[in-house]
Fold this sequence. Notes:
This protein is α/β, with parallel strands linked by helices. It has 14 helices and 18 strands. α1 (22-38) crosses α2 and α1 packs across α4. The longest helix has 17 residues, at 22-38.
Amino acid sequence: xxxxxxxxxxxxxxxxxxxxxxxxxxxxxxxxxxxxxxxxxxxxxxxxxxxxxxxxxxxxxxxxxxxxxxxxxxxxxxxxxxxxxxxxxxxxxxxxxxxxxxxxxxxxxxxxxxxxxxxxxxxxxxxxxxxxxxxxxxxxxxxxxxxxxxxxxxxxxxxxxxxxxxxxxxxxxxxxxxxxxxxxxxxxxxxxxxxxxxxxxxxxxxxxxxxxxxxxxxxxxxxxxxxxxxxxxxxxxxxxxxxxxxxxxxxxxxxxxxxxxxxxxxxxxxxxxxxxxxxxxxxxxxxxxxxxxxxxxxxxxxxxxxxxxxxxxxxxxxxxxxxxxxxxxxxxxxxxxxxxxxxxxxxxxxxxxxxxxxxxxxxxxxxxxxxxxxxxxxxxxxxxxxxxxxxxxxxxxxxxxxxxxxxxxxxxxxxxxxxxxxxxxxxxxxxxxxxxxxxxxxxxx
Length: 445
């Protein structure tokens, strides 16, 4: 059964446009509350609600609170807090579920709602389907004696700061590091700087003045073009860029940017050296050079579908603790239950502190294969994987690039786009093949 409202990461859209409208969000809270109550042994199930810094968060928080209360579910409000903080606190406080109001790296005009289970993991597909079915049954309200109550968790940020610090080796510190931290004007603006500072680093902040409208605006993990420049101007050694809800991580030194693939490799190589690596999970988009390097090192490497929930599925199936995406979603299961930008950065920094090394020196052994990505908006009714001429061309190019590159063609999950990606050691050859394949896809009229 296909899902009507939930995408790969909750319900998301433009505020004021269905489904991110008040009446829908109230009904979503009510339906989720009813479903969660069925799966809970508590007389009053309790959900924790966190949000990022978007102006619409106030409205959506109130709507969710009303929906949960009308279903007889109690609410704990945290205010602006990273997505992974909600995952951690839900589990630590033994609550029924956690809810995040955020559109992650999207502009302020978007927002979304995603849920975490009592174990701090994304809700399984079946439970999301149950919530959708409950929504279709309509909305009502329990009697007054059974309405849910709300309270505020005033020390949510402090609790999460202490958790993050606990994931850093107790025999190490960050003294001597000068770190530039770009908080994307998002949920970690009042948390990330404290974590690094309390571990001993000197900290310079950017993107730490949210006003409800500037989240991800020219800053954060999706705008890192100028990050090395900013690191240098701040007199820092290393830069850390988070996204709006702080579940992504991109890093830089004074010269270049290092993406999620590279940071995943750095952490994995360190664990291999210390005899603690069973394997690594990437995605279909993980750079070809990373896969080749893991093969050289004898490390089992698995590719999941794009999306951190699919990375996690493969990690759990294979019993692997380390996985991630080039976008900066890194999952380190022996430290956190979900992608966590701050916790992931601490794993990178612990490698540098332990070995007295730099990002450049550790990652010089793996040069990313040039990658060309073309998004092609197709005409209505077109199905790319039923287009035999395109399939034949993909097969031909894949054979030509065997051993030195690869081709990946996939549909977008949210837009009428086919994404054509070609990786090849020769960037000119990659561009040629990507363009030729893209031109076989009929354009939207």
